[in-house]
UniProtKB/TrEMBL annotation:
CDD domains: Rho. This is Uncharacterized protein. GO terms for molecular function: GTP binding; GTPase activity. The keyword Oxidoreductase does not apply. It holds the Pfam family Ras. PROSITE patterns: RAB, RAS, RHO. It comes from Mytilus galloprovincialis (Mediterranean mussel). NCBIfam families: small_GTP. The lineage of its organism: Eukaryota, Metazoa, Spiralia, Lophotrochozoa, Mollusca. Keywords: GTP-binding, Nucleotide-binding. Gene3D superfamilies: P-loop containing nucleotide triphosphate hydrolases. GO terms for biological process: small GTPase-mediated signal transduction. It comes from the Eukaryota. The keyword Lyase does not apply. InterPro entries: P-loop_NTPase, Small_GTP-bd, Small_GTPase, Small_GTPase_Rho.
């Protein structure tokens, strides 16, 4: 299926498609990479795997051989190259299985045995391979196709949330930075970044850092330009006031250009970790997130 049209004479190839879809009021750009499964492409195919957010492992519901191939070839290959990426098992050609089942029920076929893969078989395989979901669809009738991609998007969003929660257990301190020449950046600290940090890591200390200190004192032209646009430089008093308001462990101003205050920022981060957490004996490394 391409551009919503079913291709009767489909040829296996490498191709990619993009689409804007909405799931639970979230607008997502979906980029689909369609890879060729022939052995001739075994070395080329993994080149498309980096930065993949979710895999759709597809097999034909009318073929037990295709079904077994998912377990013996595709899952091992994916786990080898992208062990931590979520996978969804997808049974395709649902219309053929449904037509076969209907014909058997009406007695139109003498041999009522069929090689079609049943739903319970697919579900068992998905559980065995630790897939996040098992779905079935038909590109010809469009039945289940939208559901497949909705589940793929949800798998990615859930995986990212889980990743954030996992990182929260190993972080020692946050450095929440804003630009001293941008009052909107300063406001974003209170409106966005601090609520996010508190949501995922409520017990991890953070330091508030004002960057681009050189611009506030040395570039009057930049200050005048910012003022003309309704923006303004953030004063030390304002930065310190916000730091106290949000219970930050400290407030530092620095300039990456002149290096002024940079060492102080990291020294303060280390001191904060040492004084607010009980570290294990011999521990000398800390994880700091900017």
């Amino acid at each position: 299926m391409k551009h919503g049209e079913f291709e009767c004479d489909w040829i296996a190839r490498f191709d990619n498609y993009k689409a804007i879809v909405r799931v639970n009021d979230t607008c997502v750009q979906l980029c689909l990479w369609d890879t060729a499964g022939q052995e001739d492409y075994d070395r080329l195919r993994p080149l498309s795997y980096p930065q993949t957010d979710v895999f759709l492992v597809c097999f034909s519901l009318e073929s037990q051989a295709s079904f077994q191939n998912a377990e013996h070839k595709w899952f091992p290959e994916i786990k080898h190259h992208c062990a931590d990426v979520p996978t969804i098992l997808v049974g395709t050609k649902l219309d053929i299985r449904e037509n076969t089942t209907r014909s058997n029920a009406e007695g139109k076929q003498e041999d009522k045995r069929t090689s079609a893969v049943l739903y319970n078989q697919g579900l068992a395989m998905a559980n065995k391979m630790e897939c996040v979901k098992y779905v079935e669809c038909s590109a010809k009738t469009q039945k289940g196709v939208k559901y497949v991609f909705d589940q793929a998007i949800k798998a990615v969003l859930n995986s990212r949330r889980a990743g954030r929660a996992k990182r929260a257990t190993i972080l020692d301190i946050f450095l929440i930075c804003f630009s001293l020449d941008d009052s909107y950046s300063f406001q974003n600290v209170e409106d966005k970044w601090i609520p996010e940090v508190r949501h995922y890591c409520p017990f991890v200390p953070f330091i508030l850092i004002g960057t681009k200190l050189d611009l506030r004192y040395e570039n009057k032209d930049a200050e005048n330009e910012a003022s003309s646009k309704g923006n303004s430089f953030v004063s030390y008093k304002d930065g310190r006031s916000l730091s106290n308001k949000v219970n930050a462990a400290g407030y530092i101003e620095c300039s990456a250009l002149t290096q002024k205050g940079v060492k102080s920022a990291f020294d303060e981060a280390v001191r904060t970790v040492l004084t607010t957490t009980k570290t294990k004996k011999g521990k000398t490394t800390f994880l700091c997130t900017l």
